[in-house]
Amino acid sequence: MEKVEVFLLGPPRVYINKKRYLFPYGRAEGMFYYLVTKGYENKQILEDIFWGDKYDEEKANRNYRNALYHIRKAFGKDFLITDGRQQLKINPEADLWIDLEEMKGNLEILSGKENFWYLDHFEVKESSQFESFIRQKRVETAEKIYSLAEEELGGEKCRLDLCEEICKNLISMDEFCEKYYQLLMRLYEKEGQENRAEMVYRELKYILEQELDEVPGEEITRLWQKISSAKERKSVPEGEKPRLYKQEIQSEICETLLKWISMFCDRAEYRKLKYFSDIEEDLFVEGIESLVRRGIIQEEEESGRIYYSFPLEEERKRVYESLSLTKRKSLHRLMAKRFEKQFFLGKNEDILPKISYHYFKSQDREKSDFYLKEYLSRYLTIAHQYFPVLHNYDVMYNTETYLNNKKQIAFIYEQMEKYVEAYKESVNPESFEKDRLELYLTMLVQSYVKIPDYERSWEYIRLLEELQGITEEILKQKAFICMDTYQADELLCLSREGVNRAADTSAEQGFWKRLLGIGYILKGEMEKGRQELLQAAEIFLSKEWAEEWGANAAVAYSWLGEIGRLTKDYDSAMEYYRKSLDINANVHNISGKTLLYLHMGKGLFDTGNDKMAERYIKAAVQSFEHLHVMFKRSSAYSYEAVLLFRKGDFEGGAVYLEKAGQSAVYSRDPFERCLYIRIISLITKSSACPCRCRKRLEENRQAFSEKEEQAKIPSLWERKYLDQFCIF
Predict the structure, then answer these.
(1) Model pTM greater than 0.70?
(2) Is residue 444 a contact partner of residue 460, using CB atoms and an 8 Å limit?
(3) DSSP annotation of 293
(4) Tens of pLDDT along 160-190?
(5) CA-to-CA distance for 683 and 678, rounded, in angstroms?
(6) Rounded (5°) CA angle 17-22-24
């Protein structure tokens, strides 16, 4: 038979002849783990456990037989044998190695384990019985490991390092279980490390007080008192005792401070370091002064706060990596919970990436992903969406926090792309990886649609469709791409599908009618566009939806203004532009004003009011400088360039016209490209343009084909506008 190795502690893995085996689907994998753990089971019980919650008896039996077929195909037809027709069991002669069983005779198997959770991060959805089985096995496994460690500690040839690692890992699994701390304290007592034993007790005391408002039990407290008394009785010459004891305490404090500072990925703020280290004020200050004086850490003040960090990142990593994996995990979990509590109290979005980071490092991927989604959703709302839906909080409150944090955002996207690349081909549809893959793909699609990188957007959309089918979110992102790139027919088609999917009375109806109206504008069918946009605005401003969807009413009115501008009904255009700005003023939408200001500026420009036009166009340009979106960015730069040319500032105008050309390369908007071509053609032929400016524009001119780009513009109104556009 094949050599089969099964790792059940931590994330489960299976090897056949030293080669990793991936199961075709989760229920077959779950049934395999159940059988190798228990050794046998009744056929009917297996069907009930893995398929009873989801299917009828006939289909459950068919799925059971299919899972049995895949297991036997992979591990050999004799790997599983039957006792009559009802009992299924592992063949006693199978060449099978299971870490859960082998640890009983060889405790070294537990060394280096990420954690001791039975089937960590593995689940079979809609199988309540299997979930109960996993929970029960986790309790039994932890208890068995504890007993083995206790037995090892009581032996003559105790492997103290191994016992220490096991104890710390058990504590990370249940940070409130006193007997795990007590075992670790006994270990340090045996080693003669009373200081470390006392620190373990203080850590337990701190966690119980903070999280449960309780104190340690009598048994562990008596052990602490015994260890403290023994420490005081140690034979140190009477005159040297105070000095040596003080040095010892200060050394411990410095070590603790360095440990906590290394846990912060950037720098540690005074109050947070004080909180986590739980050191008395006087001793804390002495420890910090000692570390700063010796150049081990550096301190700096910023906006009235004091921060501590290592002079070199390599030093931080060295201290951090000197901690055991178990200790790191425990500390990260403690920090995640603290930041989580702080976020719920103050709703400070700046904390979200810290919560996600520390949960990720503590191997709680589910919570890490939750807060990552919270953070990126809010970031995308500010940086990539003009008109977000506001849910119970003002997403614009910490706008600068998000928009100035480009380095951290770039790092997050890089990590997500690495994960997608690693799992996109091998993801198990039944496992936790599928949910993470869907989350990361959704975030990446939303980002690259607006940056934009359309090739990458379509690639991630395709992967999402393979996992989910065509969802409403996928439909929206496709519609945004078509809107941004002037694909009017495709936008109309997608918008109609969205309208059909949305409930008749929902705000989503308004959302899709808004896109439908924009699609008609791009196509040049202005009356149809007007009707859809008016219906959209009416839905958004209804009593039921006004609070959350109000910003979307503003954009509907703004596009109604565009209809008036292109058809030269300027009174109507100005009326709708003002309505849009009035609504947006009450929403506090920093990103939405960008497009509204641009539309108003274009309307004033076309009516010859350059002074007011300059005010709105400049405001739009300034907003674009903060945002990452490309949609209509080139237009803002183009109009700013023309207004500067009209004032005689040719150098300034040339700078913005070059920006307009660069933005048009990325946006692929044919109207913006044609506008850029039209302006650069007019200005370079103008006798008012200085030779130096003309030469600069010619040298940096983008190589767009006016004929090809104009052919992509379906609206006769916009083509006519371009033909009549002039600078002077």
Answers:
(1) no
(2) yes
(3) H
(4) 888 988 998 898 888 889 999 999 999 989 8
(5) 9
(6) 130
